[in-house]
Amino acid sequence: MAEPNSYEEQRRRQVEENKRKLDELRLHCLSAAVREAAVKPMPTPELKLRYLRPPPPPTRRSGRVASLPKQPDYRNKKTPRRGLSPDRVYATDEARDYAFTKAKELNNQLSSDYPSFIKPMTHSYATRSGYLHIPPQFKKRYLPWSDEMIFLVDEEDGEFPMPYIAQHSAIGSGWNSFAIAHKLADGDCLVFQRVHRTKFKVYIIRASSYYENEHC
């Protein structure tokens, strides 16, 4: 019977040792705290509102700049071009052909003693170009090889002096003033008749006359 008593004694000692270790580690208190936390409801977290950042204050202009007058805004603004009819900027093909045909008829009626050429007006020539190019064949046969002043004479005998630039075969600065003064427009046709070495009689056939004569 000594062996069973020895076994029971050893088991009792082991249980006491384990209990002592549990007391040292305080595991039973930890288990109770876990059970209590599981039953206790969790507090609702406080929500914090986010506020939008206020817009930055307007930029302050310095006293020197603020005293200046407000500058005009030129963006996306088109200035109307001079020398154009307000209701017709580009000629139709019919009006353009009409003016060219009339210019050829006039040119054929002019005296063959005075050479001439026909120059149709484009939008650029009629409004903003500072040059008027002369046909190369006419330039080679009848115009000087060096720069000179030439004169354009309109149908009212008004003379307009302007430089001839031989290198570019063109009438230079002054042409734009002539175009504006005579209200030239896209599609018009001009007949230049050389009546003197450096003088041209200019006849204007207007594209707008197509509507006056054909659609009265």
Automatic annotation (TrEMBL):
Biased-composition ranges, Basic and acidic residues, are 8-20
The chain positions of domain TF-B3 read 117-208
- Provide the species name: Triticum aestivum
Under the heading Pfam families, the entry gives: B3
PANTHER family from the xrefs?
Answer: B3 DOMAIN-CONTAINING PROTEIN OS11G0197600-RELATED, GENOME ASSEMBLY, CHROMOSOME: II
Lineage top rank: taxon: Eukaryota
Where is the organism placed in the taxonomic lineage, from the top?
Eukaryota, Viridiplantae, Streptophyta, Embryophyta, Tracheophyta
GO CC term, one of those recorded: nucleus
UniProt xrefs under SUPFAM superfamilies: DNA-binding pseudobarrel domain
Protein name as it appears in the record: TF-B3 domain-containing protein
**Where is the region Disordered?**
1-20, 36-85
Q: Which GO terms describe its molecular function?
A: DNA binding
Q: Which UniProt keywords apply?
A: DNA-binding, Nucleus, Transcription, Transcription regulation
Q: Where in the cell is it found?
A: Nucleus
